[in-house]
Amino acid sequence: IWISNNSIGIIENNHLVRMWGTQVDISEKIKTDQVQQVLYSISNASLSSSDLPELIEIISRELGKLLDSTNFYIAFYDENTHMLSTLYEKDEKDVINCWPAEKSITGYVIKHQKSLLIHDTDMAKLCESGEIELLGTPSRVWLGVPLNMNRKVIGAIVVQSYDNPDAYTEKDQLMLEFISHQISISIERKKADQELKEALVRAQESDSLKSSFLANMSHEIRTPLNSIIGFSDLLLDPDFDIDQHNEFAKMISSSGNSLLAIINNIMDISKIEAGQIQLNKDVFPVKRLIAGIKNEYSIIAREKGIVLRIDPANPEEEIYLDSDEPKLKQILVNFVGNAIKFTEKGFIDLGIKIIQDNIQFEVKDTGIGIPEEYHKTIFERFRQVEDATTRKYGGNGLGLAISKSLVELLGGEIGMQSEKGKGSRFYFTVPCSEFEHLLQNRFRDTETPDTKFMHRRF
Fold first, then answer.
1. What's 444's DSSP letter?
2. Vertex 267 angle, CA 258 and 338, to 5°
3. What is the Cα–Cα distance from 303 to 319, expressed in whole angstroms?
């Protein structure tokens, strides 16, 4: 209790004989001043803290000036996954970073959107009724207050005591409700600040990537152009014999094809960014597509001493798919081209699998592999594993990004598995749930024992 004392001494015959005065209980005023100071500190912390976990740590420390914050956490609610998570917490017994909101006491506060001060006996009753389930060590008293932003619950702030049932009162509950609004504002402000900083970093990184891409693209375009111009000049020299002319013509053709591939990639990525890619779906045999790619690239692979083969584990029966065959081929050709480029010896497998209502295509190789630090960015535009100045294998960093966009356009998913020095596996899936009905109508009049078997297969 805080007391304001105002007193005077009564003096008789030059001696202090008694004191007279008044005492006023100013505890509420002191408490109000403390709350205001805490609010001010939390507000400042949203600007001075380096990140959200540090801000929450400061909030915990400031709340400790008003109530017992020995066991403290702020839980954030994800309405998509219905999960709760913490970025910073203090606890004498348990540290749980992520848990389902349903049936948890924190989720109970968020669901009902109102604060809750509850003791262990009442908590046991809620458990018996099935409204909540205990997670972690039971506490003697638990206080939770929802965090609201724009009439939407974003989480809850919680304190609890494992040994003192009188650690929190209704006044503490009211005070925490009052202060929770400023906490919500500070958290949202820090989140917005972090998002802005991250966006700035991404923008700077994007500029850097584009600059690197343009420098790399300049090199990629000049190389075949120089080859075309150089060998064309040599063809005009009358001193070269006919055999050399044929060799030069082959080099010009090869460089022309390389230049065309680069231009096609640039056009494709431009169309994707402009949303101008159109799908032209039709029913086609998948094994024919795979066999055609194998035949087309076997010579190139053989020249490097690599075996390009169709995975022997592929289904034996023919598979018909209703999709855009040229775009599927473009994706697979990107995979196969990369596999040949980055494989010095061994083999490359072209595989297909039936996974529920999807067909999975995959290309496995025994090449140089991809270091783990590049796995998350390998499908991003303008990304390459090697720096432009140290590149050994060539390429413009667009093939996999184009492949990812095409797979997503086809309604599928793309992925990869790789380990440095141990090869790579690139794969993607496309849905095929409707093709049985289409197949039965398309091939009703030309049904053979093989297609009948295939009908049963699906």
1. G
2. 45
3. 31
DSSP code string of 128-143: HHTS----SS--SEEE
Please give the Cα distance from 349 to 46 (Å, whole number). Answer: 54
Amino acid residing at 338: N
Whether pLDDT at 29 is above 70 = yes
**What Rg value do the Cα atoms of the chain yield, rounded?**
35
Please name the residues in contact with 328: beta carbons below 8 A apart, sequence gap of 6 or more. 289, 361, 410, 430
| Mean pLDDT across the chain | 81
Q: Supply angle C-alpha 12, 18, 22, rounded to 5.
A: 130
Residue type, 155: G
pLDDT of residue 33: 86
Residue (of 35, 75, 44) closest to 159 by Cα position: 75
Question: By three-state DSSP, how is residue 382 classified?
Answer: coil
pTM: 0.48
Asked if 284 and 419 touch (Cβ cutoff 8 Å), the reply is: no
* 163, 181 Cβ separation under 8 angstroms: no
